[in-house]
Amino acid sequence: MNGSLQIMLVDDEPIVGKRLKPALAKYGLEVEVFEDGPGALRRLREKEFDIVVTDVRMEDVDGMQVLEYVLANSKRTKVIIITGYATVEVAREALVKGAFDFIAKPFKPDDLRAVIDRAAKALGHPGIRKSDD
Amino acid sequence: MDYSAPDERPITDAVKTEAQRALKERPSFSIRTRIILGFLMLFLFSLGINITSVIMLTRIQSKLGFLESASSYTFEVQQARRFEKNYFLYRTNLADAREHTYRAREILEGDREEMASVVGVAHFETMARHVDRYEELLSRLEEPNEKRGGDSPPYEEIEEELREHGAEMISVAGQLLAKERESVENMLQASKRILIFIIPVLFIVIVYVANFIARQMLQPLNRLMADTRRIADGDFTPITPRRRYRDEFTELAMALNHMWHQLVHRHDLLVQAHKLKAVGTLTAGVAHELNNPINNIMLTASMLEEDYKSLSDRERLDMVRDLLDQAERSRIIVRSLLDFARESELKTGLLQIRDPIEDVLQLTSNQIKLSKVKVVRQFAANLPPFHGDPHQINQVFLNLVLNAIDAMPHGGTLTVTTRIADERDYIMAEITDTGVGIPEHVLTNIFDPFFTSKPTGKGTGLGLSVSLGIIQKHGGEIRVRSRTGEGTTFTILLPMAKVPA
User: Fold this and answer.
1) Does the pLDDT at position B107 exceed 90?
2) Per CATH, is A6-122 categorized as 3.40.50.2300?
3) Three-state SS for B426?
4) Which of the residues B96, B252, B344, B410 could staple to B391 if both were Cys, CB 3.0 to 4.6 A apart?
């Protein structure tokens, strides 16, 4: 698999996208940021992403619905769920439904990078590392 | 007016102390004493009747004794006179005459006191004098008899006087007999009448005493029953004295007052407990909400550290501003929760109904988001203010909003409306959900303390009861209408503050 990994990041907190987009871009990832579920779903209809990172709790369309849509339409896409409250139930529900993994807020960019790295490897990708090294 | 729970306790304490003092201060006149007095009256009344009867019977007995003596006396006097007549006719039986006179005198002497008491001392003395004289004259008759052929003129005179005294004795005795017979007859008649008369009087007295005792017991019992019903209905004013005396029921009233006071105290504790329960619910949401700014801070700070050298000044400044903004956001979240949880020192003031509603919608924004509930605000412009304690009004709206969210587990619309009520001088706020609704058969119970439709351990069953209490204290009311499966509307009416024009 060549080219950079296509990442979709969905979180209704603008700062999350604002900070994580450059943080992930540094590691050679191509990141599209969405602040609402419906916009993300619209984009998903147009494009297949390698990895979708989505906040679980959003108005209108939440992370679980994004997860369900991805699972139904794109088998190979890995979904990473961001939970605002790391309750066991939400995490278990996401994993049972077929999420690749979950990450609890608050987290550091490196925490997400580690999860994305594992997801990339699961996709047969060599893994991510800082691009300008 | 004072609305806060902590400030209210001393007031209820004072009210209680005052009521207990007033109850206690009355002179004691126990039910036991009253019953004893009632029966004592009855006893004295019966005793009076008995004593009267005994006295009458004793008097009748003595009269009968006198009558017997008087009869014997009359008989003896009559005998004496018969022999006296014989003596004057045939000169015989003088000894017999003397004998009977002697006996008559003995009867008089023997029953002297008894007779004197009946006929009077003066009368008795007269009688005795007649007998004495008669006896004396008889003995004088004997003297010339013994001398044989003495002077006759004294003899004639003696006969004359003898006849006179004899007639007098008979007539007096006869009169007495007749008079005493009549008096005995009268006394017997009177006794009979008293005994017949006493039956209805005794009956009336017994009925009165029974009634009196029953009233003494039933009246306070009924009153206390009414008082307990009143307290159960939520009228938390103590029992105050309504009678002049203190009795066994006073103890009961004081015990009830104590119970009432404990109830008020417990109620305050329950209100506080319910508030803490609401704080618990909110805390979960708030902790969750706090994660967002903290996450933003963590991501921003991490990237600032990571790319510090490569970032432009403008980018760094933007990140630092984000850090400050997110820190401020955390502070507001924490403060809103603490503001609600804090024991409110009392501040009543003029409030705009939409302010507490906005506060609560802000406070519950996480629960609302979490439950995918859409909020529709329909606030009328330029509503007049109302008088109230913002903390307590907040609590009411918080209870209603949290209930509405609970009623819509799969999302829905929460409509908040404020306007002037159809009732004049009232402001109205309506909280409408599109949730599961409340079944009609429990609709009347929902304001009862401890009534809950939520699973065990989830609801305290106090939210609506506490809310109703708060709104009633503010002079308003809460109404509810609901349709199963369609939703519920709670309407809050609050009196407009009278603002001087």
Assistant:
1) no
2) yes
3) strand
4) B344
